[in-house]
């Protein structure tokens, strides 16, 4: 009887394992097909003329110069606003806030905000930053809206990383007379950096690919200049790609594929830098 139960459990384990492998393989296959199609369509258009030209109604003259620099402005300011705020909020909730109903209420609402559709943040950005604070359709208004979008992800990831630091490390620092801030700065944060950076990577990757909030708050689809400051109007790569895919001509669809390749390249570079910093931080602790 015991042998039959054991054999049944092993069979279920094998079925579950191969089901997971099949589902993962199917997802990777679909992703590979999409990347292949985008690469085949967009690679012939990807050259310096495409990178150094502004959008145009003529496909052979169109480029992503304004959208590319607008995306760099947007991601840079979003990171500047969201990363310090999110990490400091996580430090407060995990290290300073006393356990209680208020703290649990705040944590529950942060978790709920992580699942709110991005279009809702676009409506909030339109009402709060564009109209109430009169920031208009500027880069800083878009960056503040994106910061609200990714803050819950950064807070949750940072909080879990800080929680994973062993209590013995804190207690040893307190035993030699360190203050709470010294413990956090010199021991907790360096140990939590890999997890914090993982959350930042996920958050910024979401922000750089979002279109709905920017369209909702009124970011422009056609700009023939580069933003020179945070109060300038802007467009971004996802908006430019969306604009090209909405046109009936095949050439604009191919231009959109080239824009997707550039967007993926920017994401890859950002993630590589973050992974390198995380790797250096992990090596320095060894």
What does this structure look like?
- By secondary structure, the chain is mostly helical.
- It has helices at residues 2-42, 48-51, 65-96, 101-113, 118-132, 139-163, 167-175, 180-209, 212-216, 237-245, 250-285.
- It starts with a helix and ends with a helix.
- The mean pLDDT is 87.
Strand and helix layout:
Blueprint: H1 2-42, H2 48-51, H3 65-96, H4 101-113, H5 118-132, H6 139-163, H7 167-175, H8 180-209, H9 212-216, H10 237-245, H11 250-285
Helix pairs in contact: 1-11, 3-6, 3-8, 3-10, 5-6, 6-8, 7-8, 8-11, 10-11
Key phrases:
286 residues, MetI-like fold, 2 domains, 11 helices
Give a brief description:
This protein has 11 helices and no strands.
**Cα distance spanning the termini:** 50 Å
Question: Judging by the overall fold, what is the CATH architecture of the largest domain?
Answer: Orthogonal Bundle
Q: Classify the secondary structure makeup into a structural class.
A: mainly alpha
CATH classification class of the largest domain? Mainly Alpha
Helix content: over 70%
Order of helices and strands: HHHHHHHHHHH
**Uncertain residue segments:** none
The CATH topology of the largest domain, please?
A: MetI-like fold
- The tally of strands reads 0
- Counting DSSP H or I runs of 4 or more residues, the number of helices is 11
| Average residue-wise pLDDT | 87
Task: Name the assembly state.
Answer: single chain
Q: What does the radius of gyration come to? A: 23 Å
How much of the sequence is in beta strands? Answer: under 5%
């Amino acid at each position: 009887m015991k042998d039959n139960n054991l054999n049944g459990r092993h069979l279920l384990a094998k079925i579950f394992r191969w089901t997971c492998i099949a589902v993962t393989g199917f997802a990777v296959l679909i992703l590979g097909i999409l990347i292949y199609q985008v690469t085949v369509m967009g690679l012939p258009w990807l050259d310096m003329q495409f990178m150094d030209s502004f959008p145009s109604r003529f496909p052979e003259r169109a480029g992503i110069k304004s959208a590319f620099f607008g995306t760099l402005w947007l991601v840079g300011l979003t990171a500047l606003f969201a990363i310090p705020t999110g990490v400091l909020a996580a430090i407060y909730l995990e290290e300073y806030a006393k356990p209680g109903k208020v703290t649990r209420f705040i944590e529950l609402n942060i978790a709920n905000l992580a699942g709110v559709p991005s279009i809702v943040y676009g409506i909030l950005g339109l009402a709060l930053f564009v109209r109430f604070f009169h920031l208009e359709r500027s880069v800083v208004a878009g960056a503040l809206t994106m910061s609200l979008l990714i803050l819950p992800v950064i807070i949750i990831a940072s909080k879990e990383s800080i929680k994973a630091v062993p209590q013995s490390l804190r207690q040893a620092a307190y035993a030699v007379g360190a203050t709470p801030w010294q413990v956090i700065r010199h021991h907790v944060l360096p140990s939590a950096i890999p997890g914090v950076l993982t959350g930042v990577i996920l958050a910024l990757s979401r922000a750089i690919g979002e279109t709905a909030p920017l369209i909702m708050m009124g970011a422009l689809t056609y700009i023939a200049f580069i933003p020179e400051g945070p109060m300038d109007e802007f467009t971004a790569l996802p908006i430019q790609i969306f604009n090209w895919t909405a046109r009936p001509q095949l050439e604009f669809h191919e231009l959109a594929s080239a824009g997707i390749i550039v967007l993926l390249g920017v994401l890859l570079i950002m993630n590589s830098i973050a992974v390198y910093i995380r790797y250096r931080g992990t090596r320095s602790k060894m």
